[in-house]
Design brief:
The complex is a heterodimer.
Chain A lengths: L5 H5 L1 H33 L4 H15 L3 H10 L1 H5 L5 H26 L3 H9 L4 H31 L11 H12 L2 H30 L4
Helix pairs in contact in A: 2-3, 2-6, 2-9, 3-6, 4-6, 6-8, 7-8, 8-10, 9-10
Chain B lengths: L12 E12 L2 E12 L3 E5 L6 H8 L7 E6 L2 E2 L4 H8 L2 E4 L11 H11 L5 H14 L15 H13 L5 E5 L7 H16 L3 E5 L3 H7 L2 E6 L2 E6 L1 H6 L4 H9 L5
Parallel strand pairs in B: 3-8, 3-9, 6-7, 7-8
Antiparallel strand pairs in B: 1-2, 1-4, 4-5, 9-10
Helix pairs in contact in B: 3-4, 3-5, 4-5, 5-6
Classes of the chains: A mainly alpha, B alpha/beta.
């Protein structure tokens, strides 16, 4: 078998662009899904039956559907159902945000639930409102416990962004596959793609391990 | 009158409890509790574990809502709703058995949390107030430490300063020394004693009988959710009228 690695260098520009889009997609998804997760968790813990039910339904729906199905559905059904057609990038962003928000919602719910009741009582005893106690006392402590889990979710998300290639978002996976089909250099492009994902993912995974060690067990 | 601060019984009542009742499901936690706390008085609540002392404190600042009877603060019945209670809580300081300092905030951050968040006080003013209070509880040198770096006794003194920062009219102490190592109990009791001497109105749930005997103006004995006896400390500790009070005290090894 003869391999021609020059195809990788000749297309380096496109691969860099694809990588940038992958990073952008992951960052934007997390920027939406962290507040999204907090809102879902606060709704779930609000005590209002309506809000709790809405949040639980959302979480259980999107947590238990395959992400690729959500992506396809967003792409084909959203334009018909709500009459707006977003670009593939925005559509992919919506699908990823729905999925990751659901996961983050559960993460934050567990994090908030792990803070002792006495902590909010101490805040209430000072005269704080429920929201002030949440903001000043509970959320900052929950964030610390939640951070390692969020970091794990981030690492999964970084790789899962490749799934939006099915709706022609020009991120790294899509770009590599496109070059492959134009040049028929399958092994070279798969290797290049693997190398880029791994080189970006490995330090992130190490960072997560470090966060777990650093924050995971401390009270 | 060993400490020279005891208030005459004619001082105006700050808190009045009349027939207070509290249920947890079917369990009667408090039944027909009546007592008064007068201005600048120290009232100690004693009795076996689970007899309702802590529950009465938690009902006083609305962490629990009562099911019957009434509690009056400065002549006004406590509101039964959350937002009403929130305003009342700002006038009551509470110190918990397990300190419940905020672990993510420094000592200074803990003491300024109430004034800055609830009273919207400027940082500079809140910190000045906090520094004065930390000085008072003997922890001015720990301002920038985190709670985890402090001993139990130090943490509880910070918790007292945190409660005082709201300038409460009443301080509620819920077994403040029960979670402490024996060697740090004294430093917390000393701070409380000084507070009492300065004229703070205090309700103290405690198992420290020596403290109650020396500092209290009035002692209330609880058993199974009711008050079985109340009176000045000389009566409770030296000549209790009720046999169960005597039994409880001798159980603790109190010899008078």
């Amino acid at each position: 078998m003869n391999l021609d690695w020059s195809v990788v260098w000749r297309n380096a520009g496109a691969l860099v662009d694809g990588t940038e889009l992958t990073v952008a997609l992951a960052v934007l998804t997390m920027l939406i899904a962290v507040p999204g997760g907090i809102v879902l968790a606060l709704m779930r813990l609000s005590g209002s039956r309506l809000l709790t039910g809405a949040s639980a339904s959302f979480v259980e729906l999107f947590r238990n559907l395959p992400l690729i199905l959500v992506i396809y559905t967003a792409y084909y059904v959203m334009p018909i159902a709500i009459g707006v057609a977003f670009s593939p990038f925005v559509t992919g962003l919506v699908a990823l945000s729905l999925n990751v928000s659901a996961y983050n919602g559960e993460t934050f719910r567990a994090g908030i639930g792990s803070i002792r009741k006495g902590q909010s009582e101490a805040a209430f005893a000072l005269g704080m409102s429920r929201w002030q106690a949440m903001r000043e006392v509970v959320l900052p402590q929950a964030a610390r416990r939640v951070l390692p889990v969020l970091a794990s979710t981030w690492v999964s998300l970084f790789k899962d962004t490749s799934l939006v290639s099915v709706i022609a978002v020009g991120e790294l996976a899509y770009t590599a596959m496109r070059i492959r089909s134009q040049t028929f250099r399958v092994l070279e492009m798969l290797t290049a793609m693997a190398a880029i994902y791994w080189a970006l993912g490995y330090p992130q995974a190490k960072l997560v391990d470090w966060l777990h060690r650093r924050l995971g067990v401390s009270e | 009158m060993s400490d020279g601060h005891r208030q005459p019984i004619s001082a105006p009542p700050v808190l009045v409890y009349r027939g207070v009742r509290k249920l947890f499901g079917d369990f009667v936690a408090l039944s027909d509790v009546s007592m008064e706390v007068r201005k600048e008085q120290v009232v100690c609540l004693i009795g076996p574990s689970g007899s309702g002392k802590s529950t009465l404190l938690r009902c006083t600042n609305g962490l629990e809502l009562i099911d019957g009877g009434e509690i009056r603060l400065d002549g006004e019945a406590l509101p039964r709703d959350w937002n009403g209670m929130r305003r009342v809580r700002q006038r009551m300081g509470m110190v918990f058995q397990n300190f419940e300092l905020f672990p993510h905030k420094t000592v200074l951050g803990n003491v300024t949390a109430g004034p800055m968040t609830v009273l919207r006080m400027r940082r500079k003013d809140a910190e000045a107030r906090a520094m004065a209070l930390l000085d008072k509880v003997g922890l001015a040198d720990k301002t920038h430490s985190y709670p985890a770096a402090l001993s139990g006794g130090q943490q509880q003194r910070v918790a007292i300063a945190r409660a005082l920062a709201m300038e409460p009219t009443v301080m509620l102490f819920d077994e403040p020394t029960s979670a402490l190592d024996p060697e740090t109990i004294g430093e917390v009791l000393n701070v409380m004693k000084r507070l009492a001497e300065e004229g703070m109105t205090m309700i103290v749930v405690t198992h420290e009988m020596t403290f109650a005997r020396r500092v209290a103006d009035w002692v209330v004995v609880f058993e199974r959710g009711t008050v079985i006896e109340q009176g000045p400390p000389e009566q409770i500790f030296d000549a209790p009228l009720v046999a169960r009070t005597r039994e409880f005290l001798s159980h603790l090894g109190w010899a008078g």
